[in-house]
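Risk register update: the risk of archive-format incompatibility is retired. Evidence:
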Amino acid sequence: MKGGQFFNNVPRNVTILAIGVTVVLGIFHLIPLLILVWIVALAYIIIYQYKSSKSTGANFVCLDCATIHQQNSCPKCGSKLKKLYSKTNNYGV
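Archived output:
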C-alpha cells in the first residue's frame, strides 16, 4: 500500500519532474525556459489542488497523526481512528 502512494501524489511528482528539467536546462544555461518550467509546474499544481478539493466528497482527519484523507484507514500511519473534517468547521475538526 505504501509503494502505490508514491505515484498518486501529483504535486510531488510534478515538483520532482520540474527539478529534473531545471537541472538539464541549467546545464545549458537556458534560464528563460527554466523560469517557464517552474511557472507551468506551479500553475499545474495550483489548478490540480483547486479541482481536487472541489470534486472530493467527505474528508476525514486521522486522530493519531492528523493527516486529512478519504480512505478507510490513514494512508500515512494506517490507523482507523478518524473524525469528519470540514474547512468551514461546521462539523468535525
